[in-house]
Amino acid sequence: MQIFPCPFCGPRNETEFHFAGELGKVRPDTGKEVNARDWATYLYAQRNEKGLVREVWLHLTCSELFVMERDSLTMDVRASKSLRGDAL
Amino acid sequence: MTRYSAFTVFREGLRGQKGWDKAWRSPVPKPAYDVVIIGAGGHGLATAYYLAKNHGIKDVAVIEKGWLGGGNTGRNTTVIRSNYFYPESAALYDFSVRLYENLSRELNYNVMFSQRGMVVTAHSEPEMEMAARQVNAMRLNGVDAEFLDRDQVRKLAPLLNYGPDMRYPIHGGVFQPRAGTGRHDAVAWGFARAADAQGVDIIQNCQVLELLTEGGRCVGVRTSQGEIRASAIGATVAGHSSVIADMAQVDLPITSYALQAFVSEPLKPVLDTVVLCPPFGTYISQSDKGGLVIGGGLDRVPSYGQRGNLPMQEAVLAGLVEMMPALASVKLLRHWAGIVDVTPDSSPIIGPSGLEGLYLNCGWGTGGFKAIPAGGYLFAHLLATGHHHDLSRPFDPVRFTTGHLIDEGAASGIAH
Ligand SMILES: Cc1cc2nc3c(=O)[nH]c(=O)nc-3n(C[C@H](O)[C@H](O)[C@H](O)COP(=O)(O)OP(=O)(O)OC[C@H]3O[C@@H](n4cnc5c(N)ncnc54)[C@H](O)[C@@H]3O)c2cc1C
Ligand SMILES: [Zn+2]
Fold first, then answer.
1. CB of residue B39 inside a 6 A radius of ligand 1
2. pLDDT tens string B375-404
3. DSSP B115
4. Among the partner residues A1, A37, A72, nearest to B304 by beta-carbon distance
């Protein structure tokens, strides 16, 4: 099993975590007209990088969302930070 | 090329096996081709074959960073079927099954397509209603399907657990008689040999590092063996599709995940069909060598790490032991992973990439082995004519903008 670090609970088994999505996706401003292309990009496009990635994860047991930086090839975890403050 | 036949086997037996030709050449890449295909998996090789055969386009190179068939094509659990829900998918995958039915003859290579059928079990009355709906949808789409009760499932797969202790007792299931398994390497090798025989250059150990663009158009590739130019470029790189899309600076709705499989020690025949039990997320067949070939769902962590790991192994094998308790003491021989390209609707992407000159055939995710002949056939059509074949049009990436998703993930509960 791989150990993932929750910024609130510390190192825990990977099966306690849920991948929520890539970091940095901003929902289109629905106060304005949003075209189909922008919706499609927001809803479906993925960077899906090979190598260093920054993602939003949910620790299921404490229900906190947080940012994890890891390498999608070696599976090394570099950092995990709370989503508060300047994480974005 | 030596034609394979009973006679040549006999003749070579008498001649000390000295008369066999290499199955394909190892050419040095030319500076330019009509068509360059990136990735020598089943889809890339089949595309090259059908470009030559159906469209007379033989000035083709297939460029592979490793060895041909070393990606998912050589790592999958070889289930071939067309038990999908939507008409678009049924038409695509059944076309593929029909091509498979004649493929050994077509390629003069035994791909060992064994139509031993596939059972998908149902474990409650509501699941039986969904199973009936599935059978009806398949029949409406012209695909063979049978609705089975518990006794009929038992006849086909006596090894399953019918005891009172089963957590989700079997009520019945869906059976597709024409489904089955094939020999994955043979599909890659057969297409490679047949494409090579028509003049296609298959270039192994050659990685595409960059796309060459001129005036906003893709005109070739820079590889670890130099630059190669082409009028049309097709990418069939499965789990690495986003890497190519990044080179092209186009968006793709794909997430790469590891998908794992397991093979047991060889056993005497115990199972002569393919069985999938959705509540356990585990499916199994037995190979001709006797090994049990076992698969399950995707890993939970997006990944390019092409190797097995424990959490999913535990889930799949726990499911297997619940499905078929008699197998609990069987030992595993091997365990591995491939990187699969998962789309939001679990349907493939065939179409122009958004960068002129570059076309994509990807997004097959956990189920593109069964689609290799059709994927190659349709992608060749697109590369040769610049237009979709009717069967591939619904799978154009434009569906993510127009909203015409073909959500097989929800409709047929894609397991594989
Ligand atoms: C464990 C597992 C079980 C599966 N079970 C089934 C099943 O039972 N039935 C089914 O239908 N499907 C199954 N699949 C899915 C199926 O294997 C794939 O959908 C199918 O093989 C994809 O074929 P492909 O030719 O598109 O990709 P691949 O066979 O992966 O070929 C892509 C090739 O591109 C090459 N490549 C990548 N990047 C570059 C580059 N930059 N330059 C040059 N070359 C490059 C790779 O090295 C690779 O050889 C399974 C997959 C896995 C991993
Ligand atoms: Zn936590």
1. yes
2. 999 999 999 999 999 999 999 999 999 999
3. -
4. A72
Report if residue A8 sits inside a domain: yes
Please indicate, yes or no, whether residues B373 and B260 belong to a single structural domain of this protein.
Answer: no
- The answer to whether residue B324 sits within a structural domain is yes
Q: Does the beta-carbon distance from B300 to A48 stay under 8 Å?
A: no
Nearest CA among B124, B125, B122 for reference residue B146? B122
β-partners of residue A22 are A55
Those residues whose C-beta lies under 8 Å from the C-beta of residue B73, and which sit 6 or more positions away, are B41, B42, B43, B184, B187, B188, B369, B372
CATH number of the domain bearing residue B87: 3.50.50.60
Residue A3, domain extent: 1-27+51-88
CB contact under 8 A, A1 and B310: yes
Share of chain A above pLDDT 90, in %: 91
Spell out which residues of chain A touch residue B253, defining contact as CB-CB under 8 Å.
Answer: 40, 44-46
- CATH number, residue B260: 3.30.9.10
* Count of H-run helices and E-run strands, chain B: 12, 18
Q: If you take atom 35 of ligand 1, which residue's CA is the nearest one?
A: B39
> Of the residues B342, B364, B379, which one is the last residue of a structural domain?
B342
Contacts of B65 in chain A (CB under 8 A): none
Residue A64 lies inside a defined structural domain of this protein: yes
